[in-house]
Amino acid sequence: MKKYFLFFILFLSTTLVFGEFTVGIKVGYNASKLSTSLDTITSNFKSGFQAGVFVRVGKRFYLQPELYYTTQGGVFSSNLSDWKQNIKLGSLDVPVLVGFKIINNDNLNLRLLAGPMASFIVNKSIEDVGNVINPITSADINSVNWYIQAGAGVDLWKFTLDLRYQIGLNQLIKSVGTTNYNTHNNVWVVSLGFKIL
């Protein structure tokens, strides 16, 4: 109980120091691509979505932690044969972003933001097409991954619109047998939010 009380006091003091406090919901579209260093494999973008909540604390400089569910993935195909693997992932994502408002008034804000993100994969699905030799399996996909997000946003009244790019910092797919895919997940995200408070 004491830990929760101390956390509440810390959170309240941070809010008082930084000033403004906003809570909102958001939905978005993403286009993800699993990169690989193998010349014999090509990778294509895959569409997905996200939905969740955000908190913003601060005035011109602000802190914005978020929590949302994301679907993403990618499609690998071979240049040498007809095999293809369609990788679908579902994750709980927790970015903690620091932002700066270039334009800051009551009804219009233009913002820049960046920060780290932790991603916890909760669903993994792989569809094999054609004759797949030494395929990637669910066990080859890391369950916890780290990213850097950066982008820009605009607030108009209670609505927010963000465009971000996130770069994978660790290998999403481990080595499969003797094959090192050296796979990172890079994602474009467009999201629309609404401020509840």
Mean pLDDT: 87
Number of continuous helical runs: 1
CATH fold naming: Porin
- Tell me the major beta sheet: 8 strands, antiparallel, barrel
Q: Assess the beta-strand content as a share of residues.
A: over 45%
Highest CATH level, the class: Mainly Beta
Number of domains: 1
Helix-and-strand structural type: mainly beta
Q: What integer value in Å does the Rg equal?
A: 19 Å
Number of strands: 9
- Which range best describes the helical content: under 10%, 10-25%, 25-40%, 40-55%, 55-70% or over 70%? under 10%
The end-to-end distance, rounded to whole angstroms, is: 27 Å
Just name the CATH architecture.
Beta Barrel
Q: Runs with pLDDT <50, length 5+?
A: none
Biggest sheet, spatial arrangement of strands:
1-3-4-5-6-7-8-9
H/E series, N to C? HEEEEEEEEE
Describe the fold and architecture:
- By secondary structure, the chain is mainly beta.
- The chain has one domain (21-195): Porin (Beta Barrel), CATH 2.40.160.20.
- It contains one helix and nine strands, in the order αβββββββββ.
- The chain has one helix at 2-18, and strands at residues 21-35, 41-44, 46-58, 61-78, 84-104, 108-129, 144-156, 159-168, 184-195.
- Strands 1-3-4-5-6-7-8-9 form an eight-stranded antiparallel β-barrel.
- Strand 7 (144-156) and strand 8 (159-168) form a beta hairpin.
- The longest helix is centred in the first third of the chain and has 17 residues, at 2-18.
- The two termini are 27 Å apart.
- The model has no long low-confidence stretch (mean pLDDT 87).
